[in-house]
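Case study 2.
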Amino acid sequence: MNCIIITGASSGIGQEFARQLDALFSDMDEIWLIARREERLETLSRELRTMCRIISMDLTKANEMELFGELLKKRRPCIRVLVNSAGFGLMGAVETLSLQEQTEMIRLNCTALTEMTYRCLPYMKKNSRIVQMASSAAFLPQKNFAVYAATKAYVLSFSQALREELRARGICVTSVCPGPVDTEFFDRAEQYGKTLAVKKMTIVSAKRVVRQAVRDVCDRKAMSVCSFPIQAFRILCKILPQRVILRVMELLG
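Prediction:
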């Protein structure tokens, strides 16, 4: 059974991946849609032509991840594409955000992504793809976005290393590193702080991000960076000292 697995499929980028991959692949037997909000997954499944398996689960719960592992053992799917899109961010100083919220970010953005990848790898074969949602926040530390940026730096580093480890198996890993995307992400992220004005100027749609990502995944690229401003930002992060960029961003905010 050929399948696509998408986490964070109930909204935003994960939802858009489901739509675009459904349109792209005609030989999939199932798309596994994973998120906590089952009713949203049900609604999305009715839009898609491919048969969907709805998996309502909390990726940060060990017992629920164990049950997912048992499902994999039982169904033994051939996972053609794994999209790790689940994640969230919160803006605000480390000392003002709650410890629970910040450690939850780490559990979902880092631990859950790593475990989902690990559990799916035995069911992937040559020419399978892994899509890891990182962020342009991975390119440098960010004041008042410290934990989120650190989690995405982890995702980027982990995914780049994993890409090299899986090269011999013919499995390609692509890190998707967009800037601000017009999704529900900001509804939660801006509870305690606001995005820098200069960032809001670079916002793009989820459809555009995923369209670029799908092209880059098909081309077996290591990284997908949508829009010229974010591509330029990535280059600046490579050539300028971090303190200079952080200072400029603060002045522009």
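The beta strands are 2-7, 30-35, 52-56, 78-84, 129-133, 172-176, 181-182, 204-205, 223-224.
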